[in-house]
Each structure stands twice: as C-alpha cells, then as structure tokens.
Automatic annotation (TrEMBL):
<dbReference type="Pfam" id="PF04371">
    <property type="entry name" value="PAD_porph"/>
</dbReference>
<dbReference type="GO" id="GO:0009446">
    <property type="term" value="P:putrescine biosynthetic process"/>
</dbReference>
<dbReference type="GO" id="GO:0047632">
    <property type="term" value="F:agmatine deiminase activity"/>
</dbReference>
<dbReference type="InterPro" id="IPR007466">
    <property type="entry name" value="Peptidyl-Arg-deiminase_porph"/>
</dbReference>
<protein>
    <submittedName>
        <fullName>Agmatine deiminase</fullName>
        <ecNumber>3.5.3.12</ecNumber>
    </submittedName>
</protein>
<keyword id="KW-0378">Hydrolase</keyword>
<dbReference type="GO" id="GO:0004668">
    <property type="term" value="F:protein-arginine deiminase activity"/>
</dbReference>
Length: 347
C-alpha cells in the first residue's frame, strides 16, 4: 500500500465528532442532538478512541464530567477546543491516505456544500486541531473543494462518487471531469473513478453525497438504498441508480455483490412538513462494529439484518437518528474516522 485512500474498515485510532454549539442551527434541538451524540460516543468508545472538537473550555469541562458519569474510559476520549459552524465532521474532517509506508491527513477546502451555508470556522477546524498537537502524522492542506461524504473507496484504488456532487459547478467550476479525476488520482492514489449519474434524497443539502446512497462494505460488496414504492417520488432515480450498480464491474471484471437496504417510511419535519433525508446507507464502520442509523420505523430491523449480512464479523449498534435528520444529515455525516497512526495520545 504505497499510496492509497484508506477504506473505512482500515484500523482506526478514533472517530472524530464536532460538538454542537448553542448558537448554531441546532439550538432548538440541542438537548436531543446532544443525547444522540452521547449515545454515539458511549458506543464508539467501547471499541476505540473518540476525538471531539468542542466550542469552548466550559463545554470541554462539562463533557469530561458527563462522559465520566456515563462510564467512558478517559483513555478513550480526547476533547479539543476548536469552534465550528456546525457538526458535520464527515465533510469538514481530514481524509486519511496511506503514503510511502506512513499516513497523511488531507485537509480539503470546505465551503458549506457549495456555498449554501457559512463554513469559515468549519474550514479551519482541521488546521486548529493540528496546531493544538492533536495529530501524530502530517496534515496537508488542499485548495480543492471536497467533502468526505462525497466519496467512498474499496481501499484498492477505486473511488465511488456521484456526478451531481463532484461535477456540480458550485464546487470546483474550473475543473471538468478529466481534470478532477487527475487531481483525485494524484492526491488519493486511486486508479479509477466510478461515477453514478442517478440517486437523490429529498431534504439533502449535499447535492447527492454518495454516503447517503451507496457504500462499500468490503472491496467486493456495495450496500445501497432501494425504493420499493413506485408512488414515491424517489422511485425513478433510485431504480436508475440500481441499474447503474448492476452494471458496475470490479477491476477483475466481476460484478459487485449488491446488498439492498430497505426504504423507511417518509419522515417529515414537524415544523413545516418538508421531507427529511432518512437513509440506512449512512452507517459508520469502526473497529469491530458498525453503527446503524434508525428512525423508529418498521424498516429499522430489516436494515440491521441486511447490514448484518454485509458485516458478519462485526457487532451492529443501532443509533436513533430522528433528531439528526432534522438538520438534513444522519449518523455517518456526524463522524470522520481517523486511521491508525493519526493521533497523539488521547489523554
């Protein structure tokens, strides 16, 4: 592995979270989202470390006490003051790449999903963590606009992404497909890009991040969302995406093993009624386990069963994400894995 974007199942030091601030868009839901993130921290810390960027020292003190009360081992937790605009660590966190026998974290430019939201503090968060001595490896800045949720990899040189996001003129308008692929290959050590032309969720602000639609579970397996309701407005685009996935081939010419994930009942915002982007594809792989978003829906158990088939050697941990989708993301969007060798000592 001389130069390669690391897959999510690569051994991890920790998962990075960005704690919500009372003055953020989470203000009306602060207690709910904090409860969800507490559950995530407790679950993850059973297997590995957790790095949390917090808005201030008061929050750091409070969370240190809170997680001690919840039984989290101090050696599994690192809290660093680094204010942010929002909580979506998947998109403002650094991306781990193996290079020449070592590890480097690439700090891409984050613009709030093409300028939709203020993101100046999010964009500098990785650099502030690095300046605080958080990372044990090199951190390299990149001027390319790229979010972690927009890409997935098999760890063997293949990158999976969507045209709607990476080719959107609100990201890198001066780069066409060929030029963008060249940049990604140079940075990430990938050898090919699989582009999906279809797939979209109502309520999604990301322009169709692949981590809401299709995910690698291992180099030969893709789990994807399937809409089985022909009356649902998502049905045509997700059916077309399924056809695309059936046509994809591995580098040896074999088709991928495809595992469909169920379609939850429509979730709507209780304030104005708009549809929320509930998806089971937004799971998180950690050392020895997979955290799975659930929505209080009958399909939750079927999603857990399907992912159990995809990850037979890992524990499955359901996390209630009804509060998370109120801000148009889900479980995976809140997290960024940090590969083994990323961090200095947690405490």
């Amino acid at each position: 592995m001389v130069h390669c974007l690391l897959p999510e199942w690569h051994p991890q030091d920790a998962v990075q979270l960005t704690w919500p601030s009372p003055d953020s868009d989470w203000a009306p839901l602060l207690e709910r989202i904090e409860a969800t993130m507490e559950a995530m921290v407790v679950a993850i810390a059973r297997y590995q470390g957790v790095l949390i960027a917090v808005p201030d020292t008061a929050t750091r003190r409070h969370l240190t006490h809170r997680f001690t009360c919840l039984g989290v081992e101090p050696a599994r937790l690192k809290l660093v003051v680094a204010p942010a605009n929002d909580t979506w660590a998947r998109d403002h966190g650094a991306i781990g790449v193996a290079r020449d026998g070592g590890l480097v974290l690439l700090d891409y430019t984050f613009t709030g999903w093409g300028g939709k939201f203020e993101a100046a503090r999010d964009n500098t968060l990785t650099r502030r963590l690095a300046d605080n001595g958080t990372f044990a490896c090199a951190v390299e800045a990149r001027d390319l606009v790229l979010e972690g949720g927009a890409i997935d990899t098999d760890g063997e040189g293949t990158l999976l992404t969507t045209e709607a996001c990476l080719l959107n003129p609100n990201r890198n308008p001066d780069l066409d497909r060929t030029a963008l692929e060249a940049r990604l290959k140079a940075d990430l050590g990938i050898t090919r890009v699989l582009w999906l032309a279809n797939g979209h969720l109502e309520g999604d602000d990301t322009d169709s991040h692949v981590d809401t639609l299709v995910r690698f579970c291992d180099p030969a397996t893709l789990a994807y969302i399937r809409c089985d309701d022909p009356t649902d407005p998502h049905y045509p685009t997700l059916a077309a995406m399924e056809d695309e996935l059936r046509a994809l081939r591995r580098t040896d010419g074999d088709p991928y093993r495809l595992i469909p994930l169920p379609w939850p009942g429509a979730c709507h915002d209780p304030e104005d009624g708009h549809r929320l982007p509930a998806t089971y594809a937004n799971f998180l792989i950690i050392n020895g386990a997979v955290l799975v978003p659930t929505y209080g829906d009958a399909a939750d158990s079927r999603a857990l069963a399907a992912l159990g088939e995809a990850f037979p050697g890992r524990d499955l941990i359901p996390i209630d994400c009804l509060s998370v989708i109120r801000q148009h993301g889900s479980l995976h969007c809140l997290t960024m894995q940090l590969p083994l060798g990323s961090l200095t000592r947690l405490n």
